[in-house]
Design a protein that fits this description.
It contains seven helices and no strands. By secondary structure, the protein is mainly α.
């Protein structure tokens, strides 16, 4: 209990010292700190939202894939997966199935028999619809990732700029006073260290999250392409 109180006291002291350092920092440093804190807060909000979105997409995609491979008829798959609206893979299949059904019914109403070359034309229409839906779903999943990438890339440089600025001020103070005392340069070095720390605090979570979400997005795209290819093959096999 004593150790925990000691740790808490040390943490509180460190927090107060950090707040005092920020308070005494120059205007330019405070602007950079505000920008880094804002970027960090926005990044964390994006990470939370995207985590929920990707989690739901992964769960429903697993359900869809299981249903797709267990059912040979596309109509059965469409009926059983109609509620899986969070899955990008399910949406891609749904777009292809709607195009397949509408195009085939339209041609049959006009007396066009779907055999021979018409099978290839139908498959081409379905493929275009599914590819278009892949792009749409990819863009939805990508929303916000560019901000994470920018934060991960730019924040360390903003922190580095603050470091350089603080060191420059420290040398200027040495030039004015003619002595390199700790009391004269410590505030400027504190500015430098604070901006570096906040830059890393903003960049590290954004970088990790971007790489994670980007990898998951690639899996969704690959799964969508696999489902699209198999559905096209089913169309060609069943209508020849």
């Amino acid at each position: 209990m004593i150790i925990n109180l000691s740790v808490a006291a040390n943490s509180l002291t460190a927090g107060l010292q950090l707040a005092e350092t920020v308070k005494n920092s120059s205007l330019l440093v405070n602007i950079m700190l505000f920008a880094l804190i804002l970027a960090s807060v926005i990044s964390l909000a994006i990470i939370a939202v995207k985590f929920v979105q990707y989690r739901q997409a992964a769960i429903e995609t697993a359900q869809f894939v299981d249903i797709f491979w267990k059912n040979k008829e596309a109509q059965d798959v469409a009926a059983k997966t109609a509620t899986l609206t969070k899955s990008p893979v399910s949406a891609v299949f749904a777009a292809g199935f709607v195009e397949f059904k509408d195009t085939k019914e339209s041609w049959e109403d006009k007396g066009i028999v779907v055999i021979g070359s018409k099978v290839d034309d139908l498959a081409a229409n379905v493929e275009r619809a599914m590819r278009r839906e892949i792009h749409v779903r990819t863009q939805l999943l990508e929303n916000g990732l560019s901000f994470l990438a920018t934060t991960a890339t730019a924040s360390p440089f903003i922190g580095l700029f603050g470091t350089v600025y603080g060191i420059m001020n420290a040398f200027q103070e040495i030039g004015k006073t003619g002595s390199a005392t700790l009391g004269s340069i410590a505030p400027h070095l504190s500015d430098a260290l604070v901006t570096t720390a906040f830059g890393l605090i903003a960049a590290i979570p954004a970088s990790v999250a971007f790489n994670y979400f980007n990898a998951r997005l690639q899996k969704f795209e690959n799964e969508s392409m696999n489902i699209a290819a198999d559905f096209i093959n089913q169309i060609k096999r069943s209508n020849v």
